[in-house]
Design a protein that fits this description.
Blueprint: H1 10-13, E1 17-28, E2 33-39, E3 46-52, H2 59-62, E4 66-71, E5 83-85, E6 87-89, E7 95-97
Antiparallel strand pairs: 1-2, 1-4, 2-3, 4-5, 6-7
Amino acid sequence: MISETPPASPALHASPDIRVGTISSADAAPAGMTQLRIDFGPLVGTRRAGLRLGTQETPAVLVGARVCAVLDPGLSAAPGIGALPLAMPDLNGGLVLIRPDMSAQDGARPF
């Protein structure tokens, strides 16, 4: 009999490293993608990220925006990508970034 539940492993239970950061640059890229550089403060530094935005957000508007992102150098097959911004789908099939309402220090972790 084959079990549908994978065996337990520490990797399955590891909590993601979610941090707050400030977008320092946002540039349009091929295939509707946007390349971001996100500053996570002096302890983490600046990381690159890429995503497909919805129609409500443009690269120019994102510079200076605070976002939440998962840090993990192994997240993407694309070289140099070190963060995955957290987002939710909008009504048009694009993405809207998850942003803190209040100020938080760059590099801060939620709890």
